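Protocol step 4 of 6: record predicted structures for both targets in the notebook before any analysis. Target 1:
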Amino acid sequence: IAIARALILRQMPNRNAADLAPHGLQLETLGFTGSYLSVAINLPPDSLDGLTRSHIVRLDATLGVERPMSIYARLNIGHGPNTDELLRHLGDLQPGRTTSLVTEFDMYKIEMNEKRLEKIWLDLIFESPHMNAVRIGDLFLSHHQRAEV
């Protein structure tokens, strides 16, 4: 029996009055047999300007799913020959509602060489995405100085 396999990416208009972004992204998986699917989002090089270990990178996301799914976010920072990463569980999303999520990545937890920052990207990791659709309504990343205590 042949199983139709497809990965469909669609830009969709955001129609909710609370949506700040005019468009979102819908990712559909058909016949997917892997245990997870990762979507890498390269951030612009100037997002590294001034980034230090005393910063916190904040991710605000608006997500929806067709079927229950666990979603993770991994922030990756390339510096010199090394790449460090911070992983956060965004939650176990349930269908029928759009979920606004906030998570933070504390740069102090990684031994990055601030003088050799070369690349930064975000992986959205969808666990067991078999026959499911994920709608990414909005992703917003910002970095903030950690308060000195």
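Target 2:
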Amino acid sequence: MLLSACSVAPSGNQRLAAADEKAEVSGWQGETFQVVQCLIRSYVPAKLKKAHILTIYIEGDGLAWLTRIKPSPDPTPIAQLVLEMAISQLSGSAVYLGRPCQYTVSLDSGCRSVFWLDSRFSQEIIASMDRAVTVVKNRFQADLINLVGYSGGGAVASLLAARREDVNFLITVAGNLDHQSWSRIHRITPLGNSLNPADFSDRVRANRQFHFVGEDDHNIPPYLIREKISRMPDRNNISVIEVHSYTHRCCWSAGWPYLWSKLPRND
């Protein structure tokens, strides 16, 4: 099934067009900007409004691999799950950030496959995402930010929260919070050139942390999240929310308005 799905995967340009269309029909627009050595694709509401707290959604790993042994030439995500989550947020201001080389691989001469493979959470990549967060925060003249990261974007959000002092909520959705343990349970090569969020968890200065995980997620199983959180010295401000019948992909975008409504109001 994996081979069949990959053989008919839309091209990078088609994936970009699909995201652009999704944004446009919702009154959002796409923008690409340079940070450090990378181009970052963002989607923001067409009418920007000043926000005291800005919620920033960070894309997952996208199409990093075509098969278990064949890397993808373009990491742009096939589905718009994270973008849909951002657009569907019920209250407050939100923006979406792609990861380096997603949507931009044909434009960015500096893109190398290691950026979405072994080095996807490297110091260089996290520095680029940190700068991208600052760029969009400044555009909204925000004082604080909420970071929402899906899957591998959860690792990025966690690493950003460990280096920033302006994080209100850290929210992960099916987040990869310990990629070394994740590699072991899936019996795949470790991400040797990547920072591991588990090594920096005691440095996170977010006011609150919320970690959503699907009950039926076999990619990031609930026990992996709970095990990681149980090792943290101070868990008073951390909540793990296990969502009945959800998997790694289903049904986060459809259910996000309801899940968001259950978080404390912070806008």
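Step 5 preliminary note on target 2. The helical segments are 2-7, 12-25, 81-87, 123-139, 152-161, 179-186, 222-230, 252-261. The chain has eight helices and eight strands.
Proceed to step 6 after PI sign-off.
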